[in-house]
TrEMBL record:
The keyword Ubl conjugation does not apply. Its cofactor is FAD. The lineage of its organism: Bacteria, Bacillati, Actinomycetota, Actinomycetes, Streptosporangiales. This is FAD-dependent monooxygenase. The keyword Flavoprotein applies. It comes from the Bacteria. Residues 10-360 form the FAD-binding domain. It comes from Actinomadura yumaensis. Keywords: FAD, Flavoprotein, Monooxygenase, Oxidoreductase.
Amino acid sequence: MLSADLADPVPVLVAGGGPVGLATALELAHHGVRSLVVEPREEVSWLRPRAKTTSARTMELFRRWGLARVIRERAALPVAWSDEAVFATTLLGREITRFDRCFGLDLAGDDLVAEPGQQVPQPLVEQVLREAVEASPHAALLTGWRVTGMADGAEGVTVALAGPGGAVREIRAGYAVGGDGSRSVTRAHIGSRYEGANDSRPNFNVVFRAPGLAERVPHGPAVHYWVLNPAQPGLVGRLDLADTWWCIGQGVTQAAGEADPLGLVRNLVGADIEAEILATDPWTARMLLADRYARGRVFLAGDSAHQNPPWGGHGFNTGIGDAVNLGWKLAAVLNGWAPAALLDSYQAERRPVAEATIAEAARNMATLAPELADPRLAGDDAAFAAARPAVAAAVHRAKDGEFHSLDLVLGHTYAGSPIVTGTAGERLPHRWLGPGDSLYDHLGRGFTLVGDLTAPAAAEFAKAADEGGVPLDTFDIPGSKLALVRPDQHLAWRDGDGAVPRDVLRKAVGHP
């Protein structure tokens, strides 16, 4: 985008071009609404992989935009490569136990989901989303600039930008979305503050290249190798099927990690391998939730609204859910078929999801490799054999929910939301209609009425939608009860919850 274009107002300005900000722009574009994403980084930071688990639910949302297949084709680890997590004394040491069917990676073709999960580093997802934004006629990405302040009023938001060489600009937007992370200018602007705490234990990430290491691993393919080495507990995993790996030293301070990252790698691997250190990243886990998600025309999404420990792989996935929820609602208001009151449901629906996710990740974090590492595991064969059963049992008690979390990933509901009728609110149950033909592929971009369209209520919904200007598609499932599906694939109403179709539809788009 040229600097001259900054003089043009936009319906939505998104502060921050990480995955959540880009996803917000793509959801708006999905509904034909223009947006501008402002991101300081010119390029994606490839050596900081951060999130590596894209959940089945996030992949379903990416499918709506036509991006799920692109991400799978470009992911270095095919989804069929492994769905296992191995616990061992070291990467090259003795196996203690393992989990299978992790992170929904085993769900390809299962009626439960339209898409299985995918192991893929966050930078690759971000690059795919950048390219989709740049190719969209409705979205634009401005790199090298950052949002420095906002002023909002009844008619819109004035956003201050800083760019190369000390350049400053202001741009007018109808709405602003803060996907600008933990140091969010947007959060400060709306007077929101984090509630929660940071974990006191340090962690140290290393990305390294180690030719020939994969051939030495005795445990077979796995998406995680947990190392229960009392001398250095942590995790190791592959970033590709060549020579690039990541590891996390749990309990390792920044000073210790930076002093000897190769030593850390060797301790986790269990051998004095030769490795090239590509990047390091110290961090501590955070359990933080913003007390408010919005004020007026300004909204928070992703890390600016919530941060949770990475154990279970829920952080960035929760942010994508924010982007879709907020994006379709902003589009409905801007496209004129919903009142501004619809936007009040964003915090009501998404904040409880983040709260539950933080609690689940904190439970996963309560027992990490240091707590599971028994000194006898590093002893002779007899000592290892004596310790292994109890350690394996402890691992399964503590970590099963971390690897098998579909109730959280697929099961959250918006029941009780001000725009949901009766007991509805959950994700529309998925089914395959034929090979590769998902029920979700037949949903419209607005609302969709699914079920037996010969039911009298079907005609009433069609009439109410026409009178209210609400986009409504239909999909006939003979013999099935009717359900009204929102643009985000969640149910706004199901037959049996009563209510007049006109009232159901008005409530679903935010009318009192």
